[in-house]
Every structure is written in structure tokens, then in C-alpha cells.
Amino acid sequence: MRIKQLEYLEAVIETGSINEAAKRLYLTQPSLSSAIKDLEKEMGITIFQRSNSGVRLTADGREFMNYAKQILDQVRLLDDRFKHQQALHQSFAVSAQHYAFVVNAFVELIKEINSPTYKFTLRETETENIFNDLRTFKSELGILYINNFNRRIINKLLTENGLKFTPLFVAKPHVFLSRYNPLAKRHSISLDDLTELPYLSFEQGENNSFYFSEEIQSTLSHKKEIKVSDRATIFNLMVGLNGYTISSGIISSKLNDDKIVAIPLELDDPITIGIAQHQHTVPSQLSLKFIQLLKNHIRDYGFKIIGENDDKA
Question: By its UniProt entry, which SUPFAM superfamilies does this protein fall under (predicted)?
Fold first, then answer.
């Protein structure tokens, strides 16, 4: 096994095609295919499922690439430090649904490492992209929610992509709306109270399945509905149009000023927010630190971390 073969695999995964990877690597398609088959034969596994639409990692392939990715990361660190005489830079990537506490933890992580050079990525993205990013090793962690409605589909995708889900906390549904909205004075809000207001939700791309929605009760019909792609827009529309969305109840005044409030929704539909990651990946120190910072922020908002003792600070 050679490092170059691992780099070939990485290119195929990133492009989803042996032909496209060959172009990127300035190789012929037959020579790239031959190198991959030689590696599969040497390891005694099938790494890719091949089809007319491209290639996809097998279960063995996902586990193999978990280890290969760690090797490639270390090789690049060595190159940066000694071949190119650069200071070691730290790298970390996370993909998430649109949660303020994830951004808070990401900011704190960068502040705490205090490194002169780093390459960090935070992808607030569509739910399906979280699975794609983890499957193709673009991100080390994914943050998303599971509830009774989407549990079967999400668990199926986790299994198919060789991922595990670790619950962080359970949240009761809340309505996010403008502080200036008359409903903001309520102690709680019912679905009937929201009938005449514009319903705001995050778009989910081409695969706009109800099961991928970031908002619970996604199958309900609404008189007025607006889809957006980012958190800044959704908050602006809450203020400008008296719109609302349904989420976890965690909202950051630091990131979103104090114009948005979270009011409990009169609905028994709890959501479990947690972390998705590869089953066989050895977590990096940065990912462990990020998870701890996530937990700190979640506790700050009064939520109990699943699996921790009640008396834990």
C-alpha cells in the first residue's frame, strides 16, 4: 500500500467518479482504476460499489477510509512542517443544521486553540448534505436532530453511511418570532395561534423530503410559507414580516441580538439533538474539544446533557 493510492481514493470520493478523479489527478481512467483494484486486492476488500451513476463506498470502504484519512492528515502535517517549513496548522470541519449553539461553540474553539495558522470549516447546510459531508470525510462531525417522525429515515441513513448518532440533549419545541410580535408576550403558543402568520423554514435542496426538514410538524399545511437558506435571513423575516419558525428553544442574543425570542409551543413532540460521526473514526483532539464546548453552551441554556449525572456542573 502506498500513500499515493490513498490520495487516489480520496479524489474518487470527493468527485464521486473515477473518470472525474482521473482528470483531477492527470491520470488515465484505466490506470486509476487499476491502482484502486490493486489496493482492493491487497487489502482483501471491495472499497467501491461501481455503477453507471458513479461510485459509492462500501461498508468496508468506509471503515478503510476512516483510517486512511487519518494517515493522509498526518502526512500533510509532516509535509507542511518539514518539506515546506511551515508552522503546523490545525484543521477541523463540522456540518450542522442551523443552530446558534453550534456557532457559539465553533467560535470558542477557535479562540481557545490560539493558533497562528488553522483551517476550520463550519457548514450550516441542508440535512442531506450533513450525511454526504460525513460520508465523504469533508466533515468530522455532524449536528442534527431526531424525533418520532423522522427517526426511522434518519437511523436508516446513519446505518447506510456507517455513522453513529450520539444524543446530546432533548428539547421541547419552541416558536421563534420577533420580540415585537404580539404573541411574544405569551407564556406559550398553540399551533392555532400561528395560523395567520408567515411560516418560515429552511429549504432542503432537491431532496426536499419532509423527513429532512429542520422543523417539526413539517407535513402541516400553511396559508403563508417562506423557505430560506440561512439563519440571518430567517431572523430578518421574523422581524420584517412577523414570521415564525419552530426550533429547539436555544437562541443566542450574542449572534442574533435581542430581537428574537423563543416561546414554548403547546405540543408534545420533543426533539433529540445530537452528534453524527463515523462509527470507526478515532476522534481528533479538536473534535473532542468542540463537543465539550457544545455541552458547555447547552448547559448554559439550562438543558441537561444526556448521560450526565444531575449534579454535574
Answer: Periplasmic binding protein-like II, Winged helix' DNA-binding domain
